[in-house]
Amino acid sequence: MTSLAFSMPVEIVDPDVVAPPADLDSNEPPMESYVHLIQMLLLLESLELFWKERTDFFAAGNLTIYFSPRQLKSEHFRGPDFFVVLGTERRPRKSWVVWEEDGRYPNVIVEVLSDSTESIDRGLKKQTYQDVFRTPDYFWFHPETLELSGFHLVDGQYEPLSPDASGRLWSAQLELFLGVEQGQLRFFTREGALVPAGKELAQRAESAEQRAESAEQRAESAEQRAARLAEKLRELGVDPDTLK
Question: How far, in Å, CA of 54 to CA of 217, rounded?
């Protein structure tokens, strides 16, 4: 297999070539389908919430990664469905420009397969992520067949990841599992807990509030019953305070 690897130059190869601005727009086409869009947003939202206190990563979906050795926007670019870069500043970007990010490539990439893209995701993209990006963890997920596969870079080559007893795959970079839950690709903690998205956090908060209200109502009812009993005892000529 021919390697696509190259070294990022310290300076522009051709002095006549002018480097484009760092804040390049993403050139990625729309997502394949609504299902693909929801899946990408779900991964992004849940990880952002789970790491809400962290400032040392960048996560994005359907965003262009520019990696031209000549620092040209017009060549060598890819747009993973979802990727995470560690050890960088957490701030918004219109695209990921490798030569403006200290040569950093994604630590984790997830592609959401479709009939029109899966051959590229399984072939050319996998080779690029292995030989050029040197991305340690690469996963793909098919939302229709629910196929989930993952690879970890070992000595420059992707080795398949073995699922655990629950069928989940471990990402050493994220220190999280990836697994299928109700037909969607989700993150799970080392202990197996689902990493929640915003809707689930809201549901948990609502349930906690309802439980608190229920406990308050029960306490109020008990107090009311005690008050009625005390009143009844007084009617019978018994001082309830003497029974305490």
Answer: 39
